[in-house]
């Protein structure tokens, strides 16, 4: 069964296709102004705009986001006005096309050709699904109001105006948008269209960062760098690795296809599959969460699958003509998410089976020499003692007099008060468990005396006696150390060869090349010890 984060990552083909399609289509209109401007010039200009767009992502959108709404309002007002002008000038009855009964006449007249043309018709509704990909920045009601009162009416007028123009000028089919613009308005509309494409691309890039962040939080994607670019809005983040990956993909596809029709086909295939996936997920939500009557759910599913399935069937014959791009991007992210999820599952199963229980840990503590000082043992487990502690104690034969199991976590708040930074409980065998909380704008800094002193002050609140509290005060002077655990999974030959490849090759590669859970911490390397352990996963231990 697909994880929610894995489903979210299926939107990446749409993001990539929208990015290069939007910028390229906006710039392409410049060709109609001069015969000396070739397609290569258009592709080069589009690639430059894309590169610049990705390079400025690290500065965040907060500094320029105030201009997004005015640009989009001017864009929709402009295409609406031009649409009305074309309708009145060329063919006013074109508005009759809004009536759905013309769908029947369309297929009755064109038959198989009409079905084949659905692959081009789908491009008229692309972008609708992208509006809901950025729900972290806008709420549901704002999207509904904007779509119903501005976006949808503007698109109806714009497409109707272009259709009216084409009825009188059928030879301008390939350049309908720019050809239908009155001459004096061409350059202003070119600038507005380019700015609108940049804003739309910016929104999708921001949404891709949000999806990666959510997927990391759900544990179905390796940890990447996530930087918060706004101290007011928690959802505004920047992921450098994802940013440059998207830049590379968009530029390669733009240059590779040279702005040909393959881009439109890739866009259409990506969008219709996202719509199909959304319909199926909505059905699950209606049944499981909303508990809607099953007859109504079945009606919803059949209706939407029939409509979207018809579009999908028309587009599938375009797979070899550019439609393979979204499938290739999906396969790339699917490989990462499934490998990472499966590896984490096997790691969790091993730790659950091999967790050190209280009796065993008490024995480990009793057999180990107690060295003065304080040790922060970093672990992801909030309950129980991880098996790597057994591994550490067996090889060092000693433990610090004051031992804390520390788990770091980031809360969805701007900053955590110092008084709420540490949550400490006393464990058996004279050790402590501590959860260190940070806000998304806090510096994860554990270097220096302030961190240690704050931890000691919190520990003293759960001390059993004044003597124990005094020992805590003296512990930092005897030495402070930080222990980080690093585990490596090894699946033996009792498992199927494919599973061994997933764990021993793919998961290990991801674990090695992506960031660790403590990568965001600023630590004192002179006081840090990393302990490695191999988790031997056999078919016998899995049963």
Automatic annotation (TrEMBL):
Domain K+ potassium transporter C-terminal: 372-537
Any one GO MF annotation of this record: potassium ion transmembrane transporter activity
Keyword vocabulary terms for this entry: Ion transport, Membrane, Potassium, Potassium transport, Transmembrane, Transmembrane helix, Transport
Described purpose of this protein according to its UniProt entry: Potassium transporter.
Family statement: Belongs to the HAK/KUP transporter (TC 2.A.72.3) family.
PANTHER family: OSMOTIC STRESS POTASSIUM TRANSPORTER, POTASSIUM TRANSPORTER 6
Name under which the protein is recorded: Potassium transporter
Protein's organism: Zizania palustris (Northern wild rice)
């Amino acid at each position: 069964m697909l994880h929610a984060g894995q489903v979210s990552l299926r939107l990446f083909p749409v993001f990539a296709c929208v990015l290069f399609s939007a910028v390229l289509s906006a710039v392409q209109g410049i060709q109609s102004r001069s015969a000396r401007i070739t397609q290569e010039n258009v592709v080069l200009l589009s690639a430059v705009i894309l590169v610049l767009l990705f390079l400025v992502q690290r500065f965040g959108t907060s500094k320029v986001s105030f201009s997004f709404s005015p640009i989009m309002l001017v864009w929709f007002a402009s295409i609406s006005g031009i649409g009305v002008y074309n309708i009145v000038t060329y063919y006013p009855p074109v508005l009759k096309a809004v009536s759905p009964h013309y769908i029947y006449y369309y297929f009755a007249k064109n038959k198989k050709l009409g079905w084949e043309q659905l692959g081009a018709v789908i491009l008229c509704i692309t972008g609708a699904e992208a509006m809901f990909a950025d729900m972290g920045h806008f709420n549901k009601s704002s999207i509904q109001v904007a779509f119903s009162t501005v976006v949808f009416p503007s698109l109806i007028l714009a497409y109707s105006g272009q259709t009216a123009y084409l009825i009188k000028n059928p030879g301008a089919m390939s350049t309908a948008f720019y050809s239908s613009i009155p001459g004096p308005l061409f350059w202003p509309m070119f600038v507005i269209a380019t700015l609108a494409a940049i804003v739309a691309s910016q929104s999708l890039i921001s949404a891709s960062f949000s999806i990666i962040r959510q997927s990391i939080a759900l544990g179905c994607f390796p940890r990447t760098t996530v930087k918060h670019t706004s101290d007011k809005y928690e959802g505004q983040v920047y992921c450098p690795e994802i940013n440059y990956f998207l830049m590379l993909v968009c530029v390669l596809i733009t240059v590779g296809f040279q702005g040909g029709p393959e881009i439109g086909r890739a866009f259409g295939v990506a969008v219709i599959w996202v719509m199909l996936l959304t319909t199926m997920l909505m059905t699950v939500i209606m049944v499981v969460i909303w508990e809607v009557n099953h007859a109504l759910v079945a009606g919803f599913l059949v209706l939407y699958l029939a409509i979207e399935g018809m579009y999908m069937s028309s587009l599938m014959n375009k797979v070899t003509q550019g439609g393979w791009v979204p499938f290739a991007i999906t396969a790339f992210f699917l490989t990462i998410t499934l490998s990472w999820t499966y590896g984490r599952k096997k790691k969790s199963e091993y730790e659950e089976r091999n967790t050190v229980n209280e009796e065993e840990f008490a024995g480990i503590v009793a057999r180990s020499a107690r060295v003065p000082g304080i040790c922060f043992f970093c672990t992801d487990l909030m309950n129980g003692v991880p098996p790597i502690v057994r591994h550490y104690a067996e090889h060092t034969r000693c433990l610090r007099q004051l031992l804390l199991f520390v788990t770091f976590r980031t809360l969805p708040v701007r900053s955590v008060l110092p008084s709420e930074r540490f949550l400490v409980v006393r464990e058996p065998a004279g050790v402590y468990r501590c959860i260190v909380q940070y806000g998304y704008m806090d510096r994860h800094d554990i270097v220096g005396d302030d961190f240690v002193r704050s931890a000691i002050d919190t520990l003293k609140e759960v001390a059993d006696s004044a003597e124990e509290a005094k020992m805590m005060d003296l512990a930092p002077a005897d030495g402070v150390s930080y222990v980080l655990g690093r585990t490596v999974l090894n699946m033996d030959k009792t498992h199927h060869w494919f599973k061994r490849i997933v764990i021993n090759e793919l998961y290990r590669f991801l674990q090695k090349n992506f960031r660790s859970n403590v990568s965001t911490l600023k630590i004192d390397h002179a006081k840090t010890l990393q302990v490695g352990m191999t988790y031997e996963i056999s078919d016998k231990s899995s049963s």
